[in-house]
Amino acid sequence: MEPSTQKLIHTFGALADLGQEIAGTGDFTEMVRTSLHLLLGTLALRRGAVAECIDEGSLRCVAVWGLGDELLSGWTIAETEKHQLLDAEAKECLVRYSDKSFISRNFDGLSNSGIELVLPMIVRGDVTGLVLLGGKASGEEFSNADFETIKAMTRHIGVGIHTHRLLEQVAQRAEENRRLYEELRAIYRDTVRAFAAAIDIKDKYTQGHSERVGRYSEIIAQEMGWSEQEVEGIQIAGYLHDIGKLIVDRDIINAPYHIDAKRSSDLNRHPAAGYEILSPINHPYADIPLMAKYHHERLDGRGYPDGLTDEQIPMGAKIVSLADAFDAMTTDRPYRRRRSFEDVVRDLRENSGKQFDGKVVTAFARAILKEVNGEAKKRPITKMLGKGYLEGENVRGLLTDLISELESRSRGAAAQTVTS
């Protein structure tokens, strides 16, 4: 094989290797260092460096071989010099020692370091940086073919640096957008919680009710394996489930006794009113208005406002319904003290499949049991219920029996469905 042919094949191979290195997603500095080594090795050059243009024309040495790292320390390319380098690249694609201001200004440093060639890396009309090369190890002069190889490989390296810059900018913008999105989510949550507090202010007996319903709903959804976004949505729905009470007379809400049929009818308007209030709002989470509307529906069809039955009720509304009822049972009301945990469990057992969805009750019972058994890192349910409420020898047994019974019912129902 002719030496020239062999050299051409070697050059093509080096370009292919360089392209693969630049296209990789590995470490940026390692990419530039490997690219420089490929360039030096292809032409058997003694030394070289790759410098990146950064803020205000400053040069930062990214990779160096056979030269001191301090070579480019403090060096800059002025805007007028960038234009000269652009002109030179457009005409010659190669800048040797000449009267170009950057080279003449730094001639002594370049010459003393053994640099013979300075090439601008230009991508899309901008100076990305410089490639500085020493002479051949053999002492031979550079041929025209060598120059073409150097120009091609220099363009490759310049594209690699430019691409890395773009990726950094994209990553930075993505991070900025992520932070902005998180800030907006936080503002939205804070606004919702403020609404919840405003709702609860109307009822002097249930301060914090909406906050607790939101937290209980969140815990149940997490136990049921919902996604992070779905969990956050159900938490918001819990906070806002009673927003319709804003239209209900304060005297009805705060009545220290069981209200009569007329007042009860007025109070029962609040789910539908909540739906009307929330529907025009473009919520970031789906079905929040429906969860507010249907949180007093029952599986047996005896709920309100629409008398829906099991499959017609959204799962989110079933979760909020249980969270709402659980908080009502475990907090003091003007006409009764809060119920014992044993009484609450009895109610959940009796009303699973009638008022409450059995899967939702099972999930909530599991979440409570995890806290009782010390398996949960945090204990939000215990904190909301107050010290001592979940303490006692039979709490664990009550929860275990409830879960076992509801799971047995669920298996029986599934088997019956298959048989039928």
Can you walk me through this structure?
- This protein has helices at residues 3-23, 28-43, 79-91, 101-105, 107-112, 144-201, 209-223, 228-240, 250-253, 261-267, 270-278, 288-293, 315-329, 341-351, 358-372, 380-385, 395-419; strands at 48-53, 59-65, 95-96, 115-123, 126-134.
- With 420 residues, it is α+β, with helices and mostly antiparallel strands.
- The protein folds into two domains: 3-172, 2-Layer Sandwich (Beta-Lactamase), CATH 3.30.450; 203-419, Hypothetical protein af1432, CATH 1.10.3210.10.
- A five-stranded antiparallel β-sheet has the order 2-1-5-4-3.
- A hairpin with a 2-residue loop joins strand 4 and strand 5 (126-134).
- The longest helix is centred in the middle third of the chain and has 58 residues, at 144-201.
- It is elongated, with a radius of gyration of 36 Å.
| Rg | 36 Å
Report the sheet with the most strands, covering strand number, pairing sense and barrel closure. Answer: 5 strands, antiparallel
Average pLDDT figure = 80
Total beta strand runs:
5
CATH domain class of the largest domain: Mainly Alpha
Q: State the share of residues found in helices, binned by percent.
A: 55-70%
Features:
2 domains, alpha+beta, 420 residues, 5 strands, Hypothetical protein af1432, 5-stranded antiparallel β-sheet, Beta-Lactamase
List strands and helices in order, with pairings.
Blueprint: H1 3-23, H2 28-43, E1 48-53, E2 59-65, H3 79-91, E3 95-96, H4 101-105, H5 107-112, E4 115-123, E5 126-134, H6 144-201, H7 209-223, H8 228-240, H9 250-253, H10 261-267, H11 270-278, H12 288-293, H13 315-329, H14 341-351, H15 358-372, H16 380-385, H17 395-419
Antiparallel strand pairs: 1-2, 1-5, 3-4, 4-5
